[in-house]
User: Fold this.
Amino acid sequence: MIRSAKWRGTSTRRTGVAASAVAFALALAACGGVGADDEPESGSDSTTGPQSFTVSGFGADDEIGQIRLALAEKNLGAKAKLNKGAFDEQQFLAAVAAGNPPDVVNMGRDQVASYAARGALIPVDDCIAKEHIDVSQYREQAMSPVTYEGKTYGIPEFYNYPLLLVNNRVAKEAGVDPKSIDTGDWESLIDAAQKMTKMEGGKLVRLGFDPSLPDSSVLWSAIHEIQLMGDDGLSARIDDPAVVDVMTNLKRLADAQGGWTKVKSFKDSWDFFGAENPFVTDQVGAMIVEQWYLTVLAETAPTKVDFTVVPIKNARGEPVTTAGGAAWVIPKDSKHPDLACKFAKEMTSVPAWIAAAEGKVKAFAKEGKYYAGTYTGNLKADEQIFADASGEGIWKPAGGEMSVFDDAVRNALEQQSHAVIQPASPIGAQFADAMVKAVNRILQGEQDPAASLQRAQSDVDKAAQAVR
Amino acid sequence: MARVRFSGETRAAYLFLSPWLIGFLVFTAGSMVASFVLSLTSYDVINPPSWVGLDNYREAWSDPVARRALWNTFYYTVFHVPLATIIALLLAMLLNRIRKVQGFFRTVFYLPSMTPAVAVGVLFLLLLNGQTGMLNRFLGLFGIPGPGWTTEADWIMPGIILMSLWGVGGTMVIFLAALKDVPVELYEAGAIDGVGRWSRFRHITLPMISGAVFFSVITNTIGSLQMFTQVYTMYFGTGSKFSSDAATLYLIYLFQSAFTFLRMGYASALAWILFVIIVVITLIQVVFGNRFVYYEAEDK
Assistant:
């Protein structure tokens, strides 16, 4: 018995020690970040060069991403370790706070100034000089949001911009000429929207005009020639009477189509990315949507849609749009900043975009799909991709039943250079949040436009005060 | 001063508990202390924190968004907790009466609790859709035009409360276990005395399962005050741009303050305010609730 008790005690101690060891091991294992903790502390790319580097916010989910990535890895002689998925601010901040950020990050250009102002990003001006990156190749509207207080913090990638797509079948049925839809004239716009809207049994079955709210407030302000954010990126003019007027009319537009709650519920029921998308099912008359939607329509049911891309016009009849997209940035404490810089250069170079676009064309050709173009922040790459006039471009008009798309791409390209950009702002997130909430309050009828915008102005002013 | 001596078994128990204890100290207690310190600073996560004393608490006191978020959270809790408790109890009583295939139905009712919160959020956006959602279609059968559960400001919170009832299976299982522990003799004695169904429930069932009800109310209240994932997915997640004031729960505002607006110090103060609120509410529940709880070991 005594032997047994002694044995039991020893066993308990051993088990306890083992349990404690496991707990410590688990605790330590849980402390990993998203950065490259197995790499040297400082950029040592010059001598032997690291074999790998970490990339965040980039999934390489399609040919455009995969081909550029493979090309960059080949040219750099290094392996990119991808932390797949879109940019995750929580994950990024945790990694930065722990001093273990990824080497290079793909994030929205509208977020760059916010992180740059707080010192989370390294300026890339030296990198641009050292790597002889020709910044003139990038679109001005793509460079402007990554430039903060005279320094450049990112290399622009894609270039996304809203277009106005009009469903020809619906417009014809309603007796509306697609080309007559004028975003700069409230009365004619509301009239066209009302004509194209269809209600059945109190339910909305066709939305006449989708203004893409609440996230298009900057576009609608630009249409009415209002710059919501001052050049300093801190002085907002959200509660300006002109903005109140824009929002009042957007509310009228929603009300003319059954009211915002019906519109939103109806939109939520759409198969937006599928074969039964609203242009196939004629659930929409006209829609503000970014240019990548041309690819969605071309991929899903191209022969079942009939639409026209019409210019978004301001009150003076001039074309106008906005632009967004991602940029490659280098976090402070990046362990391989030089390699990160070279990677950003490679991923956004003309040869990389051309190779990627060609790869996409091949992949689509195999599946019998129409290629609606690749829209980049690199002007020179776009010129080569869309050089259809000479017959040497990568995008080629298909003709026949796909001529709807050929015309759409041509019209989309005409809109490309007319983007108005918000100045880079360190309070971009607060501004966007305040605007979305203000627009929602107005459209839902919770607050009148003046009161709602005043509250948004106050929220943004408070945020600006905190960073001044 | 007498030295505390642990027996071998006690030491073993502590050693086996050590993984949890270490986890608690490192990941919970340590984080709590850190967050309290941060709540007294201005901290953007990127730069070193700077001391601001009680400024964050003062700001939270006068912040209309924080107040609205707190109001929304109370609204949700006040309706969710009683509804979840009553529905779980009804389901448990129903299941307790079934003798055959009880296990099957128990699994069926419990399964929704296992569904990932994000999936629940997405699913309910479809079910509650004002135009095409199943709920409004069902109401339509009776000629009732359903509201915009996900789009009308006044109906957003009722919609969220409806969604939250999806997960009552966990509470139901606790109640079912408690119901099975009620001695049959008590019901038999009641039947002999001619006690009706309601009286049996009121004077036998409810007191006998009061411990389980008390536990569920407390844990549900704490969980409700911390509601986040499903609502964030429905109204604030990637791609969703319908971040209405009506759906802004306290934890969502806290999360946004920390990770979207880069105000970790302020978010920490919000977290501590919520912690104090939860402690106070729980204490009130314990003090008042205990009077109605029957403990078998007691001689009441």
Chain B is about 70% helix and 0% strand. Chain B has a mean pLDDT of 90. The beta strands of chain B are 41-42, 50-51. The interface with chain A takes residues 8, 11-12, 14-16, 18-20, 22-23, 26-27, 44-47, 65, 125-126, 129-133, 145, 148, 150-153, 238, 241-246, 256, 259-263 of chain B (CB under 8 Å).
